[in-house]
Amino acid sequence: MKSALERIQLAASSTTPSLVPVGLWMTAHPIQTLSQSAEEIAALTVTSVSAVNRFSKAAGFKGFGELKAHLGVEMQSVMEPVLKLGHAREEPELTEIAEAVRGAGEAPQIATVATWIMKARRVWFLGLGASSHLAGYAVHTLMPFVEAIEAVAGEGGTEEVARRLMRCGKGDVLIALSLPRYSRDTVHLVRFARDRGASIVVITDDQASPLSAIAHIRLLAPAAHGVLPSSAIAMMAVIEALASGVMTQNPDAVRLARDLAETVLAYLAPRSVSPENQNLEEEEP
To answer: How many domains, the chain?
Structure first.
């Protein structure tokens, strides 16, 4: 079934000429549509209240009220940052954030996913938009301990991601990251990978996330924030918990960690000696 916005767009391109101005305005201003009355939209489009209601019916709704109700549900995640800024609280909810992080990092499915990662032919981390940075961090953390791992994070656009995922298939694990506001392309790409036989793990904020229904395993990372569209803190906790799980299951983890430390040692700057420690060193006989 088409979304409310898609129905508005379709009607705007196929309705009678007298209703086209209403459809084009709603298509260009879906958020403003939610805050305007039929009278206000009629004035903005130089039409009439009757035209606004007739266009709503042409789009498949009973009237303008039902159009706004359906559109409002769809636009909720888009509007939340605006509403949050209007009611921003002075004190951050540190206790709630800490509880979310602790719960996300202790999810019982993490050990199962860690086992999947260890046994996979290849591991893919998929993240678009803000989630692309988290996908990159996940691969950065796991790369020393997983032989075949890759981030597909939107470099070159969605078409390039799809091309790279052509190599994804049976025996692979794809871990998709998605926080509000959700990316439609991420949903399409995850479904594409699942159809090719990959095992799908989704790290997202809520069971209502559009990725939840596609996942074989879902790890929840609450993302509520007082001002920002979403918080990535809990997702970072899940990523680090996965890395810990993989490292503890890898029998060569100690050797690999030692080799990594020796490899990067030449590129690391030494810690400076604090005045207090310097004084202690000078006093030693």
So the answer is: 2
User: What CATH number did the domain enclosing 38 receive?
Assistant: 1.10.10.10
Question: Picking from 19-23, 31-35, 63-67, 277-281, which range would have the lowest pLDDT averaged per residue?
Answer: 277-281
| Same domain (yes/no): 138, 55 | no
**pLDDT score, position 175:** 97
Distance CA 147, CA 140 (A): 12
Mean pLDDT of 224-249: 81
Q: Which of 151, 117, 147, 101 is nearest to 245 (CA)?
A: 117
Question: Checking DSSP bridges between strand 199-204 and strand 217-220, what pairing results, if any?
Answer: parallel
Domain of 142 in residue numbering reads as 94-266
| 151 phi, psi to nearest 5 deg | -100, 130
Assigned token pair, 219:
């790890």
- 25 neighbors 52 (Cβ within 8 angstroms): no
